[in-house]
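Researcher: Go.
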Amino acid sequence: MAVPKFVRLFKTDIWNLQATDLPRLKRIVLAGAKVLLLAIRNFYWDQCALRASALTLYTLLSIVPVLALAFGIAKGFGFEKHFQEQILQQVPEQEAVLKQIIVFAQNLLETTKGGLIAGVGVVVLLWSVINIFGQIEDALNRIWSVEKGRGLGRKFSDYLSMMLIYPLVMILSSSITVYLASQASELSEKTALLDMVGKLVLFLVRLLPYVILWAFFAFIYIFMPNRKIPYRSGILAGIVAGTLYQVVQWGYIALQVGVAKYNAIYGSFAALPLFLVWLQLSWTIALFGAELSYGHHIYPAYRAGEPEGKNLSPETIKLIALQVSHTVIQDFNKGGKPPTASDLSERLGCPPVILKAIFDKLLSAGILSEIRSKEDANQPSYQPGCDTDLLTIGFILEAMDREGSDRIPLAETAEIQHFRESLAAFSDAVRRSPGNRKLKEI
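Model: Structure:
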């Protein structure tokens, strides 16, 4: 009996716990448990392990062109050698593979200096960069339920801007680290007070690589999906993912020491499988962090009921549909801004995964219609899909019931005809019922 109770605790009971009456520490623990459970569940549902494998393959195919473009940018600013040193310092455990990749990247860069072949090389270079970034965006869009990604123009401008900034940020952060370390050493050689300040600065210098790693993951989670991501969710997920990545890196280094004996068997080829394992682990952590950011954003909506929303009764679905329609109609009549799915989720306390299914039904039935602005085309707003004088409770329920195919895969019998007439009589009774009020009057 202990196992079923334990399973029920994490599957259903935890979502029915109200955090308002709990002490602050317990509220934080409860929130963290909910976010973690959502992240684990969605990691499985979104097939993130499979997507990590796909991103590993795309990275392997695109890493040379991407590094070639980065080296070209660094060379334009005169930082090529320094940039190469920084790459090797960032991932010291992959030095053997990275050195070979850098040679390939520099050779590719040399072939793009003139002539027809150079023109083709530049196109391949840019396409490879856009392709790998596009795959990352698609994976994060899937996690955030974003249906439409960036257009080609935005991909070109956004992704190449990232490629332009990345080498400069890497070199700048390295320069700041070196400068602070030298200043801390000078301070330590002076008075005792300055020695304490110097030790504090040295501690901050040692912490800086972790902060950069956290910022890197947070940047991916906030800016890569094609929608507005709450900064708090992105930053918290970035800190967790960056820390987890660093822990895995330490374990990976220990693993490398353990498999060093295979170098005698496989020679330099032994570095390639290890590099693939490292890529797979890195993308797995990155996607799990994205699930954490999404889970942190939506977990308050799951304060009651099972998160899946699979077992909702037809009556509950109708109640939610009426509440959603009523809210949209009231905003429309007041001349307010049309609400988005996120707005309605926060206002009604209904999980986005349930609202999405309700919106699909209401849109198909013609009860609501979508509005997409140029500023945020991937986040549609909603307004009434027809005259609000027509939108009564009975009209909406009948439209939802009739949404879908009306072809009956049964023989046309007398009983079927009788049932059809009975349902029509029920619908007519609902239309004439005093309870069949217009939603705008409620």
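Model: The chain is about 70% helix and 0% strand.
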